[in-house]
Design a protein that fits this description.
With about 280 residues, the protein is an all-alpha fold. Helices cover about 70% and strands about 0% of the residues. It is built from eleven helices and no strands.
Length: about 280
């Protein structure tokens, strides 16, 4: 069964939708790869941040309870992985969609047989490309440059994968909705930085979450980044570090609920505000 956006154009699944979506992914990736500077900045930003923390705080095991201490690079790895979900899913993707809105890209594509779902497949494809590249580089740097011991159990890696995928998907949908209400491509790019900056400092990415004021913890508890970061810490930090979390538990089950709620909310918002121009 097909659905219809506010513009009146059908947006349901049609023959060839997946094939056209795959072509859009290839097109998006090729276009992005032409901008080597932007590609490098996005892919290596988390690695650069972890290198900065390691330089500032040193490379000796100084983080954590006595007798169970880890290096700064090890401690900040989960936060950098969680940060990648909002950087790629929200900040970057909202900028790409806003640019398509205001430079005529969406209008031109709407004049072709491309279904709107294929357009979204293309955008999700470039987001997946960036988050995977960013994550792989960060994990390789963590192990081979900073000496971080990565998990060895399949269960830990499974938790890591679904946190990465669901967190990025939730932020992607919110980012698309955000791009659709922006007044210009410039305002979307500028305003998208603010929530990323605020949430990165209030979600346990840079500071131990339990050290934040109670009112900030209450605010951050409503956002997916806080729970993605907590879930990542449950994967990469040694046993015993959960004592520093609220309630002295990782609360991974709560992470699932909160991220899925944002995923659903982002889907509804995107459905309401994204308009695919009608074919003439």
């Amino acid at each position: 069964m097909s659905t219809t956006v506010a513009s009146g154009r059908e947006t349901g699944w049609k023959p060839g939708t997946l094939r056209l979506g795959a072509r859009r992914v290839i097109t998006e990736v090729r276009a992005f790869n032409r901008d080597g500077l932007s590609l490098g900045l996005i892919l290596f930003f988390p690695v650069a941040m972890m290198a900065l923390f390691s330089t500032v705080f040193g490379s000796e095991p100084t983080f954590g309870p006595p007798g169970n201490q880890i290096t700064p690079a090890h401690y900040y790895l989960p936060g950098m992985l969680a940060l990648g979900t909002i950087l790629s899913g929200f900040q970057n993707l909202s900028g790409y969609v806003a640019a398509d809105r205001f430079n005529g890209g969406i209008k031109r594509l709407a004049g072709t047989p491309l279904p709107v779902i294929s357009y979204f497949i293309g955008k999700m494809g470039i987001t997946l490309y960036l988050i995977l590249g960013q994550t792989i580089l960060l994990l390789l740097a963590a192990q081979f440059l900073f000496g971080v011991d990565l998990p060895s159990s399949a269960g830990a890696w499974l938790t890591f994968v679904w946190l990465l995928v669901l967190g990025t998907a939730a932020w992607s949908l919110v980012g698309i909705a955000f791009a659709c209400i922006a007044k210009s491509a410039e305002s979307a790019a500028t305003l998208a930085v603010l929530p990323v900056l605020l949430l990165s400092f209030t979600s346990g990415v840079y500071f131990p979450f339990s050290q934040l004021p109670d009112w900030l913890q209450t605010f951050a508890n409503l956002t997916p980044l806080r729970w993605t970061a907590s879930g990542m810490r449950s994967v990469f930090l040694p046993a015993g570090f959960e004592a520093a979390e609220p309630g002295q538990t990782w609360a991974v089950g709560v992470s699932v609920v909160v991220i899925l709620m944002w995923l659903a909310a982002g889907l509804v918002l995107t459905r309401l505000v994204f308009k695919w121009p009608p074919q003439k």
